Amino acid sequence: DGGITQSPKYLFRKEGQNVTLSCEQNLNHDAMYWYRQDPGQGLRLIYYSQIVNDFQKGDIAEGYSVSREKKESFPLTVTSAQKNPTAFYLCASSIEGQVGYNEQFFGPGTRLTVL
Amino acid sequence: QKEVEQNSGPLSVPEGAIASLNCTYSDRGSQSFFWYRQYSGKSPELIMFIYSNGDKEDGRFTAQLNKASQYVSLLIRDSQPSDSATYLCAVHGGATNKLIFGTGTLLAVQP
Known about the structure:
heterodimer, A: seven-stranded mixed beta sheet, 11 strands, globular, B: mainly beta, five-stranded antiparallel beta sheet
């Protein structure tokens, strides 16, 4: 059963903590993306990766970090430097690396709340 | 001017009617266009994509693209209460080489 999985579904973080959100895909897609969604706003791109061991900053990368050591995995770390991390985080993937040209498929999301 | 604009709604239509959702974009070089449906608390689900001017039909859904006027629309025929969701327009191509999302239109289908 192919798809994108994200864990955990809900995550609570204390001030000053770093947390890592998991994203795994078994679709054999080259490209993977992280978005953030806030109420009443569109999705905003945090980071994306078109190929293993390479990634680029999106529009709101400050306070976040990623790695792409395996094709299937693209974890996102929300660091303590991110001033307002409470949001719905969405991971997506697409077949080829030309960002945006091919349709992107989303995982179920992780809802992060800072206590 | 926002790069991708949608009316936030809510757009309310009776069951069985045609729902018309619109989206305008600013980058004339944009090449591909996507419609996603997002239920409350869930992740977006791709329902249509279109690359060429004109209409593209898939079941009850029709996407329409007019590059000269820089708008893309989604028609939902025979609307059902289960179609009630937020519909996100996403546009790619041109200068940014990224997928840019609108803020979405909330559709409410009344039984």
